[in-house]
Amino acid sequence: MPLLCIASPKGGVGKTTLAANLADALRRQGRRLLAIDLDPQNALRLHFGVPLEERAGFLAGLPRGIAWRDAIRRTPSGVALLPFGTIAAAEALAVTAALEASPALLTGPVREMLADPALLVVADLPPGPSRALELLAPLASLVLVVLLADAQGVALVPEIESGRFLGLGGLAGPAPSRLRLVLNQVDQEARLSRTVAAAMARHLGPRLLGALAREEVVAEALAEQRLLLDSAPASQAAQDLRDLAQDVAAALPRVAEPVAAGWAR
Amino acid sequence: MPQDDDFARLAAALGVPGLLYRSFGNAPVRPGEAASPAPPALGWAMGPGRAGRPEAGAGWRPRPVAAPEAWPLLAPLFAPAAAGEAPAGTLARLRAAPGAAERRPAATPFLPDPLFAPRPARGAGLR
């Protein structure tokens, strides 16, 4: 039933990598999990071992009225996946226009997914403000915003505090507990990264839900089309990921026990 | 000699088995390095006198060079990580890090004065 949205103010912060591996970590806690790729880069599928040549997806088929259940991919990890689909730029604009004209094309299927009391849905949003984020944030139990521990990350904190951030209302908004931050690619050996991360941890307090170490094994996992907890379970980043999954699970409403083996088991 | 290996590989890659190597007395490119065994596919090019090698001409096809098995240089990348003691979490380390005020040495509360001294104008020392 819970919806977890993974968003970021800018690209290149590791949002999709975090979404894929966090979904896997939550699945390992025994949850039924469905991951939706709402980013036209269509990269979420690569973390789950879906071959490059497989181009079909959910949002790419949205203007044609594709049924979301028909677009679900079973993955070796056990996470059910709705890829975005590989599309050209013009088609991406058509998807945006379709969502603008008929928000129910997305909110309808997502409400159907959330009607399953035993299902946890993880949505990988496009970077920056988006129609998809605008539509799904009100339905989300938790919005995780991924930042880097750098000067740009620091510069975004006042925006997040003030409520102008991504149209989400901000940490001081009406539902601040639904918006949490994650610092990604923290490098303890780099002075800037270490200093910024420590300062943000002090400033944000419990609003910072997690921090993940920068390690080569994370990028290497994608090179193998594997998930981090499979490829480098003893790494610092894997430990951070497990910690984050525990804290996310604690922040989400409890899901019901599945009554029968389903498609996302 | 390493350069002989290099030459044989070049001849095979170009598909010109009749290509000859002539030494002009140049020093080896990799001095002191032991000669590496020739790849099996190049055996004909490396054999003594190249006996039985295919000659360029009618009906001759370049012998295919064996492809590397699977990027052996990348193999260590995909080796399973050694299991060890689980390290402390990054977030926990960040939260345990002392604040900026705590880190500053008590004996040096101020930045050193030379930082704020005016810098000499460019070219001032050339007159």
UniProtKB/TrEMBL annotation, chain A:
InterPro entries: Cellulose_synthase_operon_BcsQ (IPR017746), DNA_Partitioning_ATPase (IPR050678), P-loop_NTPase (IPR027417). Pfam families: CBP_BcsQ. Coiled coil: none annotated. It comes from the Bacteria. SUPFAM superfamilies: P-loop containing nucleoside triphosphate hydrolases (SSF52540). NCBIfam families: cellulose_yhjQ. This is Cellulose synthase operon protein YhjQ.
TrEMBL record, chain B:
Residues 29-63, 98-127 are annotated as: Disordered. Residues 54-63 have a biased composition (Low complexity). This is Uncharacterized protein. It comes from Roseicella frigidaeris.
